[in-house]
Specification:
Strands 1-2 form a two-stranded antiparallel sheet. It has 8 helices and 2 strands. Helix 2 runs parallel beside helix 6. The protein is globular and about 30 Å long. Strand 1 and strand 2 form a beta hairpin. With about 120 residues, it is mainly alpha-helical. Helix content is about 60%, strand content about 5%. The chain starts with a helix and ends with a helix.
Length: about 120
Amino acid sequence: MDNEKVYAMSFAKIYPLLTAKAERKGRTRKEVDEIISWLTGYQAGEIEEAAESTVSYGDFFRNAPRPNPDRELIKGVVCKVRVETIEEPLMREIRYLDKLVDELAKGKPMDKILRRQREKN
């Protein structure tokens, strides 16, 4: 799927897929929201509004109020692609979220998912 098709997808369509992936593995929607909030700066109510609106997935990330500078600590492979090597900035943001939800679904503790070890130093 090309990037423009991904960017044009509705956040309202993607969000339930993200939460379902986490919930199938015993995690919660609240944890997914915490990840999204950490990554983008959106508050829980804003995430819910976006999930009920027609905002595109691309615009959801383009309009993120406070992208977390620590998101650059996210490393690893998602969809057979190493996230830190993705050159297209918007696609890298989207894959960051995919990677964090994957980590959540795999049972990783929230402190590690949210890269809190750096904050403690």
